[in-house]
Queue: 2 jobs
Job 1
Amino acid sequence: MLTTLTALAEPTRLRIVELLQFGPRYVGEIERLLVLTQPQVSKHLRVLRDAGLVESTADAQRRLYELRREPFVEMGEWLEGYRRSWEGHLDALAAHLEQSGDDP
Amino acid sequence: MLTTLTALAEPTRLRIVELLQFGPRYVGEIERLLVLTQPQVSKHLRVLRDAGLVESTADAQRRLYELRREPFVEMGEWLEGYRRSWEGHLDALAAHLEQSGDDP
DNA sequence: ATCGAATATACGATAGTGCGTATATACGAT
DNA sequence: ATCGTATATACGCACTATCGTATATTCGAT
């Protein structure tokens, strides 16, 4: 989760991710649409790929980048924990932590 | 969204947030449970508060911190956009961006 | 009023991160 | 083989963020 959050917590990378939400893009397209330098795009895509947020397929010398579903699914599941806690449906672990941390 | 992500994209802060998931805590509790220095906790809580992720209520000289729901709800809504895009239910904006960005 | 406990802030040092420029690499076209 | 296009990487610099230590502030207790 921290890996995903760290990758997304950068303005330019978040913009790239939001663009890719609407479909795969080549590096050159991203560069042009978001008005970025080419190395900037490549560098950020590298970080996003290392974080597992995007994957690329080669098309001659061009690379098509697209989002991977997994990290977003994971984020959804992670958020579930918070939703549950507010709905008062604390599971066993939560209940345990709830009392074990109280001041003696 | 960027504000929320930036606040969460720090190991110690994420740990604090995950702890607060199970209920409000005083600064001293967080310090003790997560084995952090006191200024470290205060500083991170300040960042989390500025980002709107937590709020505090005063109890004498102690401050009880708890999570705010809004940013997490927002994250859920933000994720919805990605879920929709994968399910092929592109809305008008998405469809527009889908074609307007193609190479001529 | 004074003291101790709880929390917040200031400040200097350090490390990590992103940017720009230059360069390397891969591939299709000729 | 050579050239142009597309993408990736290297390197130096600047900025930001985090940490540790010290100090300020607030409040209850005495």
Job 2
Amino acid sequence: MLINPATLAIVDDHPIVLEGLQKLLTNVKSIQITGCFTSGLAFMSFLKENKVDVLLLDITLPDANGIELCREVKALSPDTHVLALSNHSERSMILQMIQNGATGYLLKNISSEELVACIQEALSGMITFSKGAKEIMARPSISELKGIPQLTKREKEILHLIADGKTTPDIAQQLNLSPLTVETHRKNLIQKFQVRNVAALIKIASQQGLL
Amino acid sequence: MLINPATLAIVDDHPIVLEGLQKLLTNVKSIQITGCFTSGLAFMSFLKENKVDVLLLDITLPDANGIELCREVKALSPDTHVLALSNHSERSMILQMIQNGATGYLLKNISSEELVACIQEALSGMITFSKGAKEIMARPSISELKGIPQLTKREKEILHLIADGKTTPDIAQQLNLSPLTVETHRKNLIQKFQVRNVAALIKIASQQGLL
DNA sequence: TTATTTATACCTGTTTTCAGGTATTTTTGC
DNA sequence: GCAAAAATACCTGAAAACAGGTATAAATAA
């Protein structure tokens, strides 16, 4: 099974973490650490020249935020598996990282065996979470799920059309309704979600998975 | 380890699937099937009277869509672990289910051993995926990640404020800018994302994890 | 240092949205 | 069958957004 060891890079602004991870992973034969960086910019220029199979990425960085960096990495090098390595234990943060192309999410309290196992799983093309992250993901906050207004069929329909950039006259024509009717539905949507305008409406609807 | 077997319910509009799952799970001592339903409505009324530890939920249903049903289930009974069981293999679909409170996602080509393992993992309070689902999750579509316009610091700032429901005058005051300047940024945002109005802008920005 | 991008600001006119209502006809649930 | 909810439609006036420009200072990259 020893063809070529997988290349691994680490981005973390704490040198101590960098040191620790290196020590943990040096005696793993199947993994070769090819670079350690304390800034996103430095890593990106490295990535342009070198192949990286796995990236361990801290989310909080001095120059850029990890979520955007993750997306940039995947856009430049889609085959690089990005594993977020973070203290952030909010469910929404984990979801955002995954949405932006991360192959996994590891909490920093991870054990060394678990770390290696997760890297292996990522290398084999699967999403992976540390135990702690799995537990967080299984516990959706009730507030996220409750307090979601109940929409009628028509309201959902119109919500989607609004989100697609359609204006009231557009929607009225498409659904063969009076523009005044569409306005009423729009107003009810804004009222039900307790927001001020469509911008906030679309944001909340999108975050709650209604679009 | 045999205190009380976990209660499990199944919602799927194909009776054959219902039969098959029942057969697969009857000889598992730690799991007790307490109900099988072919419609979301029927299950919801059952859930009001009975405790359900795990729900195997098909996404495509005649009366409601599984994503919304999942949210309703979690709102009514937060301790019920919902495992999506589906043929849908789109990454976005999986993410939506998770965002709406699902504890896991299983593709229907799952093996019986894997199914039991996933149910056990869900019962122990962790998110879980079938092998196939893990692979899909690890492969973000490139189109999702590329083609994202590059925004300046100011534009990001204003994008967030717009998403929060702030109007141009609001934003101008908050950032000590001329409303006309804010209008320009707003216009540039709409142009960069190639959309018609803020509604579409916020939708796309939200889906790309920029909010 | 020069060229480009970014951030700033302005102008005009049209369209759309939003706030504040009222009101009738269908559905749907009990 | 009756009550409630949903879908329909209307009205007015103010506020905001959008389309279509132009233009200049400051910062940044080549």
